Amino acid sequence: MDSHISKVKALYKGHSASETSNKESENGICQECGNLNGFGDDWSTWCTPCNSKHFIDEFPSWTSGNNNVDELIRKTQINTSHYESTFEWIPYEQFTDIKFISKGGFGQVFKATWSNGPILYWDREKKRWFRWPRVPVALKVLFNSQNISSDFLSEITSHLKLYRSSNTCSEIVRCHGISQNPESKEYIMVLEYCARGDLGKYLAENFDDLTWSKCLDHLLDIARGLNTIHSEGLMHRDIHSGNLLIDVSYAAIGDLGLCRPANSSVSKKDVYGVMPYMAPELLRGKPFTQASDIYSFGIIMWELSSGHRPFPNIPHNFNLALKICDGFRPEIVEGTPECYKELMQKCWHENPIPIKKENSEFVLK
User: In this protein, which residues make up the domain named Protein kinase (predicted)?
Assistant: First the structure.
């Protein structure tokens, strides 16, 4: 989305002063209500009271056909405080150039072009939302979701909570809204599209050209995203290279399907994950904690430093689980900077430290 934001800023530079003032004044005063909204710069300020009213006025014009979905969208729109956290019902006919990407246990992922595109601000003269059109998006189509499940709504809620966070950043994959396939009736999460795919694919195609500086950039993005999740009292519970996505200029954490409050109880039968990234305590049957995410982060550090998935030539079976519980870790790559190695070992230690701001700064150094 960063690349789109840059283009939009460039677009505004070409507008006349009168066109720009149609949206807001330079000091952040809302041109509709006259109040100081105090959020954003000269083009991205957002007046929550006024824009909430615009959303409410449009409520009669759309419905998902499901009361729970409608209620979630409407509640979110009323409380939207920034254009990047807008969320809406998106009719399926607004998607073009739909192409299959991958298939998993939950459903399928497609790339598409969203013809209307996301909301940027309210155009007072035209009395409608100004949007950034023809934006590429990822469509996460959930199997057997005709009767929408609590798990689906839980994943949506996790995305929305993180984008309302005071720590909001581009390092969490954005969810633009919900749609539905008119033929299968399966519900769809409309997500930010990351052009370079997941981290595993990215490393397979680009590792030979990956510098330590770029490696640290990606790592810092992931650390910031994870810090946002933990700051909101959540744990991701499924950090691995397939759930970390790379766009042109940044990395982002995706797939919040297992994201839960840190104080929630999870039974042993609900323990999921990709074994090489799972903390030893999980393999022993103990509950998830935020520290379990930190262990996974340490394994991601190794993957970025090596260009390989962890334990690639070892069967991911009970024997590997026993070895991990006994302290077995991937062999550190020769030439790994000492500071990088130190943080990585702290993260995959039996009692990993939380990733705080100072640790992210330490990685950057």
Answer: 95-365
Which uninterrupted H or E stretch holds 88? strand 88-89
Closest CA to 241 of 334, 192, 310: 310
Q: Which domains does the chain have, with CATH numbers?
A: 15-192 (3.30.200.20), 199-364 (1.10.510.10)
Element at 107 (helix H, strand E): strand 107-114
Q: What is the C-alpha separation between 251 and 246, in angstroms, rounded? A: 4
pLDDT for position 98: 98
Q: What average pLDDT does range 298-307 have in this prediction?
A: 97
* Tens digit of each residue's pLDDT (9 = 90 or more) over 17-27: 334 334 444 44
Q: How many CB atoms lie within 10 A of CB 83?
A: 23
Token pair in block for residue 249: 């200029």
Q: 40, 82 in Cβ contact below 8 A?
A: yes
Q: How far apart are the C-alpha atoms of 304 and 17, rounded to whole Å?
A: 47
Task: Give the 3-state secondary structure of residue 8.
Answer: helix
Residue 275 or 352, more confident = 275
The answer to whether 124 touches 165, Cβ cutoff 8 Å, is: no
Geometric angle at alpha carbon 107, from 176 and 308, rounded to 5°:
90
